[in-house]
Amino acid sequence: MKGMDVPDRTEDFTADPVELFFDLGYVFAFSQLVGHLVHHPTWDGVGEAGLLFLLMWLPWSQFTWAANRVSGNGRPVRILFLIGAAVSVPMAASVSTAFESGGPLFALTLSMIVVLGLATQTLGYEKRSDEFGTFVRWMWPSVLALVVVVAGGFAHDSVRVAWWIGGVVIIFAAMVAAGRGEWVVRSGHFAERHGLIVIIALGEVVVAIGLPVVSALEGGGGLPGDTVMALVAAGVLAGLLWWSYFDRTSPALEFRAEHLDGAREEGRYMRDVYTWAHAPMVAGVVATAAALEEIALHPGDEVSGAFRSLFFGGLALFTVGVAAAVWRAFRVATRERLLALALIGLVLTVAGSWPGVWVIVAVDLVILVMLIFENRRVEGERPNVTS
Length: 387
Prior knowledge:
By secondary structure, the protein is mainly α. The protein has 2 domains: 162 residues, no CATH class; 193 residues. Helix 1 packs across helix 11, helix 7 runs parallel beside helix 11 and helix 12 packs antiparallel against helix 13.
């Protein structure tokens, strides 16, 4: 194993283990976001968590695009990924204090990870190629955004928020501009990496529903029946979210990517479907995990309006992300899912006096029925293939 492995532009590959190692920092970061939402279920708290998520999505996406360009099994790439993984730990640790004393550490470490991702991506380009020119046009606005983010880290209160929002806006504008250039993309790798980050977010649901078990057992009273029922219902919800993404959506999006023509169209598709549409999916799962943690800790109590709103908001983000990706890929509306979301909103509106466990059960039933009807419709619309 010598030198740098830069596969042919038509060659696809799977994610290297070092990419999964890098994701471990995001396990920690997402758990911090869940904790922030549990302790601050207000509009301000949700806004802060959303801004932090978008900022952390940038370095993760940068490394994903970089590893899509060059194979992750090259030693230089692995070294950069390992450095990024090490830096991601203090970044994640500072999430809970990012709007307080931890702002400088959060901004500096996040920016370091983006720089490492940019450096990784440069390894796979011929310096006079069209793709390298596109990358350079993307790189300089990214560097400007990092300067803005770091400046915000040393600012205070609302000024910090304004600087960080400005950094996100610059990155978003750069993404729009970069879509006019040519990119080398590998659909299988993109699909796998984004599927893995969805799994990591779903892992936060598992952690959230495990906390009531720890709390009950430490209290010495065993597991009450309503706690067990809430754990089962929350576990079913996690499984339904997994099914709603991995059974049909994920392979369909990858299939569409494999049949695109032209480097520009491929780059725009990956940006729209994966970098953009998957952000609300993952953020939605994180928000849902926060709501489930609170409900599972108090399964027999009424669910406050704040956590019912958080529950609905998380499911809405996930559903809208899926709907946007499917529409971008196939120009098809996910009508069963949008109708189910409306029904969930109605359930959560009238469920103010319900015990929390029954709120989760009701949401489970709506999602399950939706998936059944969606499957029957889609299978019924498939053309008959005769031999």
